[in-house]
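step=predict obj=YegS/DAGK C-terminal domain-containing protein n=284
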Amino acid sequence: MVVDVGTGNGMVKSLLDSAGEICSPSNAILAVIRGHTRSLDVATISQGKTRFFSVLMLAWGLIADIDIESEKYRWMGSARIDFYALQRITYLRHYNGRVSFVPAPGFEEYGEQTSYSGEPSCETSTSQQESLNMQQPGYLGSDVKLENMHWRTISGPFVSIWLHNVPWGSEDVLAAPNAMFSDGYLDLIIVKDIPKLSLLSLLSKMNDGSHVHCPHVMYLKVKAFVLEPGARIDDPMKEGIIDSDGELLARGNVTYKGNVKCYMAYDKLQITVDQGLATLFAPV
């Protein structure tokens, strides 16, 4: 468990909140000293031979744009998120694309029936391959037989796609109120067409998780997931950002101009979940 030093620190907040404790450095340190542990699901994001392991979240669209593009306002501290969110709502982007997923039991009504289209294949650049070699000394992810699962699909345009592994995205954003640490599923939050005022209201409800009840939100659990990101509706020459655990995973054409190297290409990627693969220090 990490001491509270990040901008959002959703993992620490999720662990301490689950025990009814305040999210603070002292409580985080005490949890480590006590030595209690709990299991945590690990998501494997794959594209060709490249693998990236995620324990918190993956985002594409509005949430990813806010998280990554607001880095230029880092001097504002955590206020940069709210400040840049208002900018992005004012000039709202919609993205073409498609998502496919294996729903958890009880969520089969979402989307249209489809079949597994095969593992994403993509040319790996030299810098991406270097990142891959650094981060993967052994484990290569789940070997689950995806072609034998029941897949559903939803096509865009999308405002936001957000996958979450734990309840809290940050100390004041209860992104996925039904998420569990080791249930073997990811919580998927989809926003498609939504008026700007409704979106502003939705974001204001994220502090208590009530945004998932908004009629413009689809909230479900998935066992596996495929993202096929596309270009912006208003300008097809511009693409988007894929963000995982606060890191810039992929960047499309004519978008965020940071100097950080991407792990993957802005193209089709696949996510599978290993139940309880990781172990965390926890309050109880």
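step=describe
The radius of gyration is 18 Å.
step=end
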